[in-house]
Amino acid sequence: MGFRPTSETFPLLLVINPNAGKKSSSEHLTKTIQPALDHAGVPYRVIETTSKGFAQEYFRENIRQIFIDFVQSLAASSSAVSAQQGDTEGVTGTGEGTTTTAAATTAGPPEVVLKIMVIGGDGTVHEVINGVLQGIHGSSPSSGPSFVNDNFRPKVELSIIPTGTGNAIATSQGVMNPQDALDRFLAEKSVPLRVVQVSQRNNNTSHTNTNTTTTTTNSNGDNDSSSTQGAWKPVVYTAVVNSFGLHCATVFDAEGLRGLGNVRFKASVLKNIAFLKQYPARVELFGPVQKYDRSSHQLIANATTTTTSPQQDQQQQQQQQQQPSVTLPGPFTYLMLTKQSSLEPGFVPTPFANTSDEWLDILAVQNVGRGQILDILGDALKDGLHVKQHENVEYYKAKVVEIETPTQGRLCVDGEFLDIAAGPEGRVRFEVVSDPNIQLFHLCV
Ligand SMILES: Nc1ncnc2c1ncn2[C@@H]1O[C@H](COP(=O)(O)OP(=O)(O)OP(=O)(O)O)[C@@H](O)[C@H]1O
């Protein structure tokens, strides 16, 4: 298959990972999706991934041209419609006023909605998101002028046909199978899909997946932080889950067990519980924080976020940016920072997570033994009961989270791995940034 950018109308890019989950993507494409799109009259281009990293590289290299072709094709179909109507409404066909509906025109900058359907799992979605953002912004939003700005800010609407193993994003929206996902795409309803910016300060960062290690060397000089330790540099964006400790070790070991199919996570978690470790780290939450209160069963705002005047509000915000609102000293048995409530059907580690809000949900379990973590994870499999039941489970919502490990550590970032140096040099920051040039993604629901 493969995709060739053309100037034809292509309202949909279809990215298929034939290797996802039980390798059923191709069958879903030919038997269900293509007939439905043909019936609905939706033209599409197919991009078939051939290896790990393919989708990310594809979008990094081609996203600019894709937008050019897309806008041109909308303009062309807009002028064709206006010609059919005798051009009575003065449509020029230059692309100005282009909206999602090719025929419609409005005042102001063009609203462009690029639709991408992913037939695969969360790893493929992660690659698409990172490829699009790297193609738009280069290595970081501060690395130079970007073609996405106040004058051109497209939406990227993702429809996820869940053929992967976990399918966390789809499952968290209650999408249980490919047909359900297809119906939702055709219904044309979407919500914002916020991504988490993962940043490091040091000049050399090692971002690893099981097949490749990418080392990024930042060019110094562009400071976007007042810290004496230098600017925060985005390393990767995540939409699913960031973790440390048992969950990260489980995902890492499960990669080596792909031959076992979908039971590889179960095998890996049992192994990591049998040889349970505690993972030393300090985690700091900055800015406003909400904590789950087990007695009232509510998320309660941290007292320090209450303000009385706009002036105090500003002062307090500055203080909150510098001083952590909450510090978790570790060591951690289990730590998860996520935008999704569920990681697979029935497993709901972070029940209050919302893909569209600007909070990062944090599940922290510090220094518990084998029996306790088994009970906690068992209750997480009962639609998130662990949060209500276990006093060793701490649940927060925060805007900014930083983690530092006293020895070399490993983080899982949407199924890929970030090896971090010991101490302040390796510190990692997670933030649901409000930059509208980053938060371009929407999700069909
Ligand atoms: N043709 C291919 N051959 C091998 N690996 C591929 C191919 N295309 C993509 N990949 C890689 O396969 C990995 C897993 O894909 P994906 O996440 O879609 O499925 P999954 O792991 O089964 O599902 P989930 O992430 O939801 O648990 C991704 O990291 C992706 O880069």
TrEMBL record:
Gene3D superfamilies the UniProt entry points to: 2.60.200.40, Probable inorganic polyphosphate/atp-NAD kinase, domain 1
Boundaries of every DAGKc domain copy: 7-202
One MF annotation (Gene Ontology) recorded for this entry: ATP binding
Biased composition (Low complexity): 202-228, 311-323
Superkingdom to which the source organism belongs: Eukaryota
SUPFAM superfamilies: NAD kinase/diacylglycerol kinase-like
One of the GO biological process terms: sphingosine biosynthetic process
Chain positions covered by the region annotation Disordered: 81-103, 199-229, 305-325
GO cellular component, one term: membrane
Pfam families named in the record: DAGK_cat
Name recorded for this polypeptide: DAGKc domain-containing protein
Lineage, opening ranks: Eukaryota, Fungi, Fungi incertae sedis, Mucoromycota, Mortierellomycotina
